[in-house]
Amino acid sequence: MASHIVGYPRMGPKRELKFALESFWDKKSSAEDLQKVAADLRSSIWKQMSDAGIKYIPSNAFSYYDQVLDATSMLGAVPPRYGWSGGEIGFDTYFSMARGNASVPAMEMTKWFDTNYHFIVPELGPDVNFSYASHKAVDEYKEAKALGVNTVPVLIGPVSYLLLSKPAKGVEKTFSLLSLLPKILPIYKEVISELKAAGASWIQFDEPTLVLDLDSHKLQAFTAAYDDLESTLSGLNVLIETYFADLTAEAYKTLIGLKGVTAYGLDLVRGAQTLDLVKSNFPKGKYLFAGVVDGRNIWANDLAASLSTLKELEAVVGKENLVVSTSCSLLHTAVDLVNETKLDDEIKSWLAFAAQKVVEVNALAKALAGQKDEAFFSANAAAQASRKSSPRVTNEAVQKAAAALKGSDHRRATNVSARLDAQQKKLDLPILPTTTIGSFPQTLELRRVRREFKANKISEDDYIKAIKEEIKKVVDLQEELDIDVLVHGEPERNDMVEYFGEQLSGFAFTVNGWVQSYGSRCVKPPIIYGDVSRPKPMTVFWSSTAQSMTARPMKGMLTGPVTILNWSFVRNDQPRFETCYQIALAIKDEVEDLEKAGINVIQIDEAALREGLPLRKSEHAFYLKWAVHSFRITNCGVQDTTQIHTHMCYSNFNDIIHSIIDMDADVITIENSRSDEKLLSVFREGVKYGAGIGPGVYDIHSPRIPSTEEIADRINKMLAVLETNILWVNPDCGLKTRKYAEVKPALNNMVAAAKLLRTQLASAK
């Protein structure tokens, strides 16, 4: 019985790639240094899977930034602004597309389906001259082969690549991206031919868009693409991999009808209903790569339940044609539980990171083949039973409080227009008020202080003193820049979710449980293992301290319940909405304590609300109902004069704008500039928005510093569709990943642009 891994984490067990990338970007190391770190990581990953007994090991799943950007490079689809003149795409062009450079902005970045991973959105049009410009897939296959590992090269499938793209600037929005299929398939054929020549016997095409709600025209594109590729693929075993949701009956029919395809990879964790489609109709002689081990969470697999499912499938597809697999790439989980030295033994026994999931996949494959490891299965069963019966999982008081939420929609008593009037009387802000999103640069010194405090190398008094000094520096800078509503810069926080999870019950934390979010940016999601409550105030001390340093309004900074949920590894033994309601009640306690402490502006970030939207449209309404309700619970008890802000970033918000309005926040700041002001189109189309809104005026994920004129131009575009009295001026997102040398001039230009527009508006009256 064979085993397969869809994909694997890239950063390394201790974020080796992250540090190598940042050293290269800072010009502290060479391209050769970066390439060596990457090669060592790839070699280690392939060896680990080979040693674990995995038969189908992926190559080209590694990336220096993003796998979709790798596909863009392979196809030579470089936007003209980067000045690429042909040939093999190097690091300069590649990272300019990802991050921008001093003269041109980066390409748009958005969420990968409903995960916290971000991909770089291809910009395409009828005039793109596609060419085979990156041989990475072939090079990595050869690299693995030289190490004695025969891998399955992984490519983003041609149809999914186009469906994940957008029309380039200046191209009609109605342009059919699928019309480019005949132009990109010749490059795919070149890649396939080179892989065959290099000795590849299998190839994996990731076509995750098959799980979306696709019309017949889009489904037909898959048929047309693989019809065209059939002769080139001859002699290869071809796996089409799907993940993250069920396939519709129509999509499943399309998938199993594709020509030249040998095997189908299905997510049987999030796509449990797909199981019924397989049982009712599976093509004879084809392989099923059964994704029964969850690639998106960290809970140990219920091996007995998975083995039972696999035996059902074995009866349908045949023993020789069933391959045990992960539900999706392990990119979305932490690397190795072995590196966790501080988790207690009970919780640790409930978990499996990527390395452990590889072992689980192989254990299931061996069990199906009659070589069951009884001790391994017994230990797994004991851990499953321990988790179900552990008293630390359940808190009756929390469950009662969450149950009592039913029957109310938790809206504030006064409408937003009246609240904004009351808040303006208290805050006395100018038109086009300026603010930032929350965090300021996290310097090496600041990280050292936090690290030494956690390691008990400095006292609590010394830690508080150092953090107060950092807050004072940030407050003074904002006053010097003449920003209207200030933030304290979040120097006490390494991560916006981890910080709150550490202070809430029902959460556990890792030392090295890092997961890639984008590029070199890694997050360490908390693990929600039990009922959630807030034992004591979490942010009141720091927000009050910061407010005491200035007469200007100081925002209290909180992470919202939906974002905490979506950016954590969430317990899978109860519905997600129940866990979210518990978190909402905890944040509600914090909001009310901040208000009592004299904080008049409180930001409750819901950066990940859109990210959690199910991939099936039929499931949208239910999710949005409980997600928006959870946000309203957090602030339903505050006074009219307390201004509630929220923030959202790096997702397509236009399709949920009415739910955003239903959140009933007083002010929303929202990413806008990197996505080429896509957000503004919803207001051009007539959606009326009466609360305060701050579409971002510059992209903080690029080192590029925008000019005053550029920002003023962006604000003018906003004023064309939004009322002057509701518009705020702010960056796209928090500033923690930037350097002060970039932040100071950018914010200075932002404030100057706001003042310029105020003067122009005043003289126009």
From TrEMBL:
Q: Name one GO biological process term.
A: methylation
Give residue ranges for domain Cobalamin-independent methionine synthase MetE N-terminal. 3-316
Q: Which residues bind 5-methyltetrahydropteroyltri-L-glutamate?
A: K18, N116, R521, C522, W567
Reaction catalysis annotation? 5-methyltetrahydropteroyltri-L-glutamate + L-homocysteine = tetrahydropteroyltri-L-glutamate + L-methionine
Q: Per UniProt, where does Zn(2+) 2 bind?
A: H658, D662
Q: In which pathway does it act?
A: Amino-acid biosynthesis; L-methionine biosynthesis via de novo pathway; L-methionine from L-homocysteine (MetE route): step 1/1
Its needed co-factors are: Zn(2+)
Name the source's superkingdom: Eukaryota
The alphabetical list of record keywords is: Amino-acid biosynthesis, Metal-binding, Methionine biosynthesis, Methyltransferase, Transferase, Zinc
Q: According to the record, how does the cofactor bind?
A: Binds 2 Zn(2+) ions per subunit.
Active-site residues (renumbered): H701
Under which EC number(s) is this enzyme classified?
2.1.1.14
InterPro entries named among the record's database cross-references: Cbl-indep_Met_Synth_N, Cobalamin-indep_Met_synthase, Met_Synth_C/arc, UROD/MetE-like_sf
Indicate the segments annotated as coiled coil, or none if absent. none
Chain residues that bind L-methionine: I437, G438, S439, E490, D605
Per UniProt, residues of the Cobalamin-independent methionine synthase MetE C-terminal/archaeal domain are: 432-755
HAMAP family in the record: Meth_synth
Protein's job: Catalyzes the transfer of a methyl group from 5-methyltetrahydrofolate to homocysteine resulting in methionine formation.
* Annotated protein name in UniProt: 5-methyltetrahydropteroyltriglutamate--homocysteine S-methyltransferase
This chain is encoded by the gene named LOC107893151
